């Protein structure tokens, strides 16, 4: 297979991908079903692992160890949401106390003392709940039983009460009271965008490593063919020296070319082995990887017609879809909530409360319970005020929130510039590598003709072994450059898709964090 045929082989896999923005993967991976399952028994054998680009992506998305670790982060962050919400959960309380007291007291006659023994039992059950409106409602039921040696009858009291406390200043703002809950929710969403960004990086790495491995295999073919040609040239030179048609000094150049070919082949095989290990790690095709397992790549032989949109359209897409940009916008929203929360902390505490209860007294528990519903009642109404004069802690927290918000806005502006540079540079690289394919193909064609001409001249005695060897090296270099240009084009295209944030959607993979984040100040502009 010559280099041009390999070009067709190498680029064919992108037929139907680039312009249509679709890979062969037509449904999401781990988040939603629909993809055909990978045959675990097949990939777990000691047989060579046969994969195309689609299967490589599937294996990595399902089995990559680091991706499995990253998937756990949103679930971990979701537990913080539940923890913050627990502040508004109802709280049930209960207590029971038994007490005995033995003491002396002045007798009722007033002339001497008398001893007394008092046994008392009290119990309370309460239910309280804090609402986001700053309202705290508490219900309480209590009972007490007293038996004194000074009296023949026991004394029992039962009480039902309700207490409502409403914040009037600090704690009145619902947004401030819900700030920590909403910040926890944003943290979960941020982790989803982080996971999306990591998945895109992993996907780019898998595809790039796929083509690096294909490139390493093709390099071995080129160096093997070159070594065979050099060996043939050496044998021919030795025959011509024997019959006196060539001077012995011409033998050194041919021998050097054979030695160089062996050296190149050794390095190429070592590179292939390294690329195989890295690809196996990314794919993780089985629970315990067989590091000696061979990999066979499969791809088609058609060349795609990839036409990119205008660079500005790619930039605009990146502004919407880049996970790191959306993370930065969510951080600003989180900073807005911190501002609301710390501003609320600058206010003094002023709470209004009302406590209403009804109590029944009798000799028995049953009778006192019936008396609770009588005409007697107790009610308390009041205000609670609290404010530290300096309030330095609250002021420091609010100042920090203001500065942090400004810092996040500046960081977002800087990131926008970096994204512009990333996408535009990647676009330039795609255009460069695409043009390099034609240029390197032309160079390889000329080098083939040059070697053919130099070989013919050598056979008729008008050239030297050194010039033939140099022509062989130039041809090998041009062949390597040609296949590298193909690999670089494919990798640069994947890199552009990742940098604009569209790689997963172009490959048909659905993950959390796929929706663009729009800041409040930008929503009015868009509307």
Keywords:
527 residues, alpha+beta, two-stranded parallel ribbon, 14 helices, 57% helix, 17% strand
Structural write-up:
The protein has 527 residues and is of the alpha+beta class. The chain contains 14 helices and eight strands. It has a domain of 120 residues. 57% of the residues lie in helices and 17% in strands. Strand 3 and strand 4 form a beta hairpin.
Gist of the model:
This protein has helices at residues 3-11, 40-43, 53-63, 65-85, 174-177, 179-242, 251-283, 311-321, 323-345, 365-371, 392-459, 465-499, 503-506, 520-526, and strands spanning 49-51, 91-106, 113-130, 135-148, 155-167, 295-297, 349-362, 378-386. It is α+β, with helices and mostly antiparallel strands and 527 residues long.
**Annotation, overall tally of beta strands:** 8
- The helical percent reads 55-70%
- Strands of the largest sheet, in order across it? 2-3-4-5-7-8
- Beta-strand share of residues: 15-25%
Number of helices: 14
In sequence order, what are the helices and strands, one letter per element?
HHEHHEEEEHHHEHHEHEHHHH
Quaternary structure of the protein: single chain
Mean residue pLDDT: 85
In the predicted model, the low-confidence regions spanning at least 5 consecutive residues are 1-45
Instruction: Please tell me what the overall shape is.
Output: elongated
Structural class: alpha+beta
**Biggest sheet: strands, sense, closure?**
6 strands, antiparallel
List the helices and strands and how they pair.
Layout: H1 3-11, H2 40-43, E1 49-51, H3 53-63, H4 65-85, E2 91-106, E3 113-130, E4 135-148, E5 155-167, H5 174-177, H6 179-242, H7 251-283, E6 295-297, H8 311-321, H9 323-345, E7 349-362, H10 365-371, E8 378-386, H11 392-459, H12 465-499, H13 503-506, H14 520-526
Parallel strand pairs: 1-6
Antiparallel strand pairs: 2-3, 3-4, 4-5, 5-7, 7-8
Helix pairs in contact: 1-12, 3-6, 4-6, 6-7, 6-9, 6-12, 7-12, 8-11, 9-11, 11-12
């Amino acid at each position: 297979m010559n280099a041009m045929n390999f070009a067709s082989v190498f680029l064919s896999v992108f037929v139907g991908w680039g312009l249509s923005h679709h890979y062969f993967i037509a449904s999401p991976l781990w988040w939603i079903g629909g993809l055909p399952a990978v045959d675990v028994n097949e990939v777990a054998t000691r047989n060579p692992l046969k994969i195309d680009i689609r299967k490589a992506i599937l294996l990595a998305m399902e089995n990559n160890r680091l991706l499995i670790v990253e998937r756990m982060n949103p679930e971990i962050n979701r537990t913080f949401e539940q923890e913050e919400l627990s502040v508004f959960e109802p709280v049930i309380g209960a207590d029971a106390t038994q007490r005995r007291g033995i003491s002396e007291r002045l007798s009722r006659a007033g002339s001497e003392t008398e001893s007394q023994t008092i046994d008392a039992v009290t119990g309370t059950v309460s239910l309280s709940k804090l609402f986001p409106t700053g309202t705290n409602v508490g219900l309480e039921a209590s009972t007490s039983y007293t038996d004194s040696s000074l009296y023949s009858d026991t004394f029992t009291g039962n009480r039902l009460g309700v207490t409502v406390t409403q914040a009037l200043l600090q704690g009145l703002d619902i947004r401030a009271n819900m700030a920590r809950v909403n910040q926890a929710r944003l943290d979960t969403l941020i982790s989803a965008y982080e996971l999306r960004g990591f998945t895109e990086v992993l996907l780019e790495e898998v595809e790039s490593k796929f083509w690096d491995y294909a490139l390493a295999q093709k390099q071995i073919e080129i160096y093997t063919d070159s070594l065979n040609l050099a060996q043939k040239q050496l044998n021919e030179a030795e025959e011509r020296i024997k019959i006196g048609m060539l001077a012995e000094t011409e033998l050194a150049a041919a021998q050097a070319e054979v030695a160089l070919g062996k050296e190149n082949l050794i390095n190429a095989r070592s590179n292939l082995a390294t690329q195989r290990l890295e690809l196996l790690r990314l794919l993780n095709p089985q629970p315990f990887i067989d590091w000696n397992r061979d990999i066979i790549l499969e791809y088609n032989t058609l060349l795609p017609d990839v036409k990119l949109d205008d660079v500005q359209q790619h930039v605009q897409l990146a502004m919407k879809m880049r996970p790191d940009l959306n993370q930065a916008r969510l951080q600003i929203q989180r900073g807005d909530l911190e501002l609301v929360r710390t501003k609320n902390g600058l206010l003094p505490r002023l709470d209004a409360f009302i406590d209403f209860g009804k109590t029944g007294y009798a000799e028995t528990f049953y009778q006192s319970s019936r008396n609770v519903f009588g005409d007697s009642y107790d009610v308390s109404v009041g205000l609670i005020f609290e404010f530290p004069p300096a309030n330095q802690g609250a002021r420091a927290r609010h100042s920090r929130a203001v500065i942090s918000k400004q810092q996040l806005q500046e960081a977002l502006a800087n990131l926008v510039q970096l994204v512009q540079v990333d996408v535009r540079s990647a676009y330039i690289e795609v255009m460069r590598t695409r043009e390099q394919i034609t240029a390197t193909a032309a160079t390889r064609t000329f080098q083939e003709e040059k070697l053919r001409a130099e070989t013919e001249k050598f056979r008729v005695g008008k050239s030297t072994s050194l010039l033939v060897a140099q022509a062989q090296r130039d041809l090998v270099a041009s062949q390597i450059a040609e296949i590298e240009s193909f690999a670089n084009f494919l990798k640069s295209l994947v890199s552009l898709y990742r940098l604009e944030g569209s790689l997963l959607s172009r490959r048909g993979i659905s993950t959390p964090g796929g929706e663009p984040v729009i800041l409040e100040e930008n929503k009015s502009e868009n509307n």
